[in-house]
Design goal:
Blueprint lengths: L11 H17 L7 E10 L1 H6 L6 E10 L6 H6 L17 H11 L3 E7 L3 E9 L23 E5 L3 H13 L3 E5 L2 H11 L3 E7 L7 H11 L4 E6 L3 H6 L9 E3 L4 H13 L11
Parallel strand pairs: 5-6, 5-7, 7-8, 8-9
Antiparallel strand pairs: 1-2, 2-4, 3-4
Helix pairs in contact: 1-4, 6-7
Length: 282
């Protein structure tokens, strides 16, 4: 990535298509493996460069270059690669629409697309998007994405959905936590019997087959009154509170949640100096 990249005006979803199509082409050009490099930089294209490359308007740009070390293309193929339905791939391997789509999106964004390639030398596609020199982010621009909150404590995750249980485990382990998992209340109690002294947080789904989350938390409270508890559910927290499942003010994480939401909330509960323990008054 280049430093201090400028802003551009482009549709994020469409530009994702540009990058994805170029990366897929690069993959297909390296059937035996190779190196894929994505590079970004602020560049200023002058009149001389414009004269050598038809359709390029001089000015400031942000460049995204995608380079592979694959089989490359000859001059005839390069002259036709942006034509709809033209493809160098075998029958059934491609429609020939990928690069024409890329070309259309880049042009629609006011940019230019150049290619440099030769047989056996790999290929580089350079996307140039006009750089906004004095642009400012709108007032409602999304804030910078925070790094996941981290820790080293042991978390017992109780979730009956296997796929979500796996995602949560990976996210928390990536943030430094030691993670134990269980699919239901019975498994959780068995795990706690083996690791009772080590568990600092119970992260539990509210609604589960058999023993629900609140009942499980109350069981833990009998032997581990200092254990922190974080409930999660696809139901809104106010709906659960109104139906008497959880006490108002209980630590709660609504599904679906992001990794940042998860790690932030886990850290918040672990750092709470006065946790409201299950079954105890606030």
């Amino acid at each position: 990535p280049g430093p201090d990249l400028g802003l551009v005006k482009a549709d994020p979803g469409q530009f994702e298509q540009v990058v994805m199509n170029l990366v897929l082409n690069a993959r297909d050009a390296m059937p035996e493996g190779g190196t894929l490099t994505l590079r970004t930089a602020n560049v200023d294209l002058d009149a001389e460069y414009s004269a050598r490359h038809a359709g390029v308007v001089p000015g400031p740009y942000v460049m995204v270059a995608i380079t592979d070390t694959g089989v490359g293309m000859d001059a005839d193929a390069m002259a036709r690669i942006f034509e709809p339905f033209y493809t160098t791939k075998e029958v059934g391997k491609g429609t020939g629409l990928g690069l024409s789509t890329v070309f259309g999106i880049v042009k629609q964004s006011g940019g230019s697309l150049l290619v440099d390639s030769a047989p056996g030398r790999g290929t580089t596609f350079k996307v140039f998007l006009p750089r906004a020199l004095a642009a400012t982010l709108p007032d409602d621009a999304a804030p910078p994405v925070a790094r996941p909150a981290s820790g080293t404590e042991t978390v017992l995750v109780v979730e009956d959905e296997a796929a979500l249980r796996k995602v949560i485990r990976r996210a928390l382990e990536a943030a430094g936590y030691h993670v134990l998992t269980a699919a239901n209340g019975a498994e959780a109690l068995e795990s706690a019997a083996r690791h009772a002294a080590d568990i600092q947080l119970l992260l539990v789904d509210v609604v589960m087959p058999g023993m629900n989350g609140k009942t499980l938390a109350l069981e833990f409270a009998k032997t581990q009154p200092a254990l922190r508890v974080l409930f999660m559910s696809g139901y809104a927290d106010n709906a659960i509170s109104h139906h008497g499942v959880l006490d108002a003010g209980t630590h709660f994480l609504a599904k679906p949640f992001t990794v940042a939401d998860l790690t932030r909330k886990v850290r918040e509960v672990l750092d709470d100096p006065h946790p409201d323990l299950p079954g105890n008054p606030p």
